[in-house]
Amino acid sequence: MSSGILVAVLIFSCIVLAAAALWAIRKLAPQADELPVTADWIDEIALDRYRPMLRLLDEEDFRLLRGQQGFTRKMESQMRRQRCQIFRGYLKSLRGDFGRVCLALKLLMLNAGNDRPDLARVLLRSQSEFACGVIVLQVRLAFYSCGIGTVDVANVLNVFDGLRLELRSLVPANMAAGA
Predict the structure, then answer these.
(1) Using one digit for the tens of pLDDT, what is the confidence trace for 155-164?
(2) Which of 87, 128, 170, 178 is the most exposed, having the fewest neighbouring CB atoms within 10 Å of its CB?
(3) Residue 177 to residues 41, 69, 83, 98, 173: CA-CA distances in angstroms?
(4) Residue 179 lies in a domain
(5) 132 in a domain, yes or no?
(6) Residue 53 lies inside a defined structural domain of this protein
(7) What residues make up the domain containing 104?
(8) 100 within 8 A of 31, measured Cβ to Cβ
(9) How far apart, in whole angstroms, are the C-alpha atoms of residue 40 and residue 96?
């Protein structure tokens, strides 16, 4: 009887995780009318735009401030909340850019003269890695805002940049806007 319950719980957990991943992937997809696929556009959404996320929640800043006279736990909590809010803003922007890159790749595959199963695999793998990474980030961010644990965004940024570079390799440098 207990092994049947365990199996049911595992199946239910897998269904919930799959549903959450699908929801996150669908939420990332922007509308086609907001997609200017040009080399300049792809270069504008470079990883440099999101580099501040790597250090924004660094615990070292709090360690240094705790050693300063007059720095209180209340100040630390307020600063932690503010940084989490800024981080969430970056994350929202990153999700939007990732969604636009995914849509651009889908449109390129749709309009390509030949099938690209290799590109489709990369796209699907990247979408699921990104969606799962964002879910993990949001959970860790909730804990971090309470002073528990750390947040490492490097993996999510690497997935984003890898897919962005894949798109960049498919778009000619001299592609004009609207072409």
Answers:
(1) 999 999 999 9
(2) 178
(3) 9, 55, 36, 20, 11
(4) no
(5) yes
(6) yes
(7) 2-170
(8) no
(9) 17
pLDDT digits (tens, 9 = 90+) for 78-132: 989 999 999 999 999 999 999 989 988 888 888 877 888 888 999 999 999 999 9
User: Chain centroid to CA 176: how far?
Assistant: 28
Q: Between the CA atoms of 119, 162, 131 and 46, what dihedral angle is there, to the nearest 10 degrees? A: -120
In the chain, beta strands by DSSP E: none
In a domain, 178, yes or no: no
Structure tokens that stand for 30 in this block: 């922007």
Distance, CA of 133 to CA of 171 (rounded, Å) = 27
Answer whether 163's CB lies under 8 Å from 102's CB.
yes
DSSP state of 176: P
**Number of domains comprising the chain:** 1
Distance CA 24, CA 18 (A): 10
Contact (Cβ atoms closer than 8 angstroms) between residue 39 and residue 174: yes
- In this structure, how many other beta carbons lie within 10 angstroms of the beta carbon of residue 72? 10
What is the pLDDT at residue 179?
A: 40
